[in-house]
Amino acid sequence: MLTFHPKPLVFSAVAMSGPHSHQPERKITIAAENYPVPLSPTLPPISKQIELSRAMTASSNSSLYSLSPADILYHDDHIIAVNKHNGIYCETLLSSLASQSDELHLANRLDRDTSGILLLTKSHKVAAKLVKAFTEHKVKKTYIALCTGPPPNWEQVTVRSGHGRSKFGAWRVYAASDVGRTLPGGSVVRSMETSFEVLSVNGNGGFREVSDTGDAGNVLVVEEKAVKEDCNDSEIVVRAYPRSGRTHQIRLHCQYLGISIIGDVKYEGVYEWKGTTHHAHHLHAETLSFEHPVTGLNVMLRAPLPLWATKAFQH
């Protein structure tokens, strides 16, 4: 596919040295910046108010939060894995575990409203090893998302795009060919890749085990804005296999595919669905597999499905 990048506009100005100066005139050339154009929409106006309300609720609840022993998925002398519930900040959960160790560190992070596996370490050394494994994509992850939109015409698909902050600070999808280009804040567009598989549409289908490879299916290389269909009446459960670790990656790619996550008002997800108001987006960090940073053994963790997921499979 051919991609057109217009040349930057160039303006010229003449600097005068004063009416009595004998210095020659100096010509100054100013190049207007040519920033890449985001391909996903701006944030809906309603999202700011709703997000603020959710943040205030989460903050006010933080002092009351106590981790249930049932939410500890794995525990040894070096790491702790917990099942984080939605509406909880990672820092809140970290504070609630302070009695477990004098030195706890987050090895990964989840958005406030994303539930599922959160991994913590008991030392700087172990933390550094796990963070390195996450950065080098040696940790395999899967997520479950409940979305609305037209029934997908694919069973598996892989989305490759750019990712970055727009001039208003929001995370947006950019063209794959824009990777490496500079953005208004001085950062650059980075690559982003997610594989998806459909688990059910309107209750047809069901839960199945995680694929070892996460079949890539057809590869969609993003180079232009998606054409959004008006139909938004199907309920779709997908499993996501992130191949990179960008902020809001799965949420952005679901939006681009036209199947925004229920409750994800920031990325065009419905706030009310089937007579129910959803106070969090329905995204769950389902599994995590990695090499133990101390023993070298393979560790496979799974978080129980949240209620919204089990209900979706029971339709």
Automatic annotation (TrEMBL):
BP terms from Gene Ontology: enzyme-directed rRNA pseudouridine synthesis
Highest taxon, organism lineage: Eukaryota
InterPro entries: PsdUridine_synth_cat_dom_sf, PsdUridine_synth_RluA-like_CS, PsdUridine_synth_RsuA/RluA, RluA_PseudoU_synthase
CDD domains: PseudoU_synth_RluA_like
Pseudouridine synthase RsuA/RluA-like domain ranges (all copies): 85-255
Catalysed transformations (reactions): a uridine in RNA = a pseudouridine in RNA
Gene Ontology annotations for the cellular component aspect, listed alphabetically: chloroplast
One GO MF term: RNA binding
PANTHER family, A to Z: MITOCHONDRIAL RNA PSEUDOURIDINE SYNTHASE (PTHR21600), RNA PSEUDOURIDINE SYNTHASE 1 (PTHR21600:SF47)
Protein name: Pseudouridine synthase RsuA/RluA-like domain-containing protein
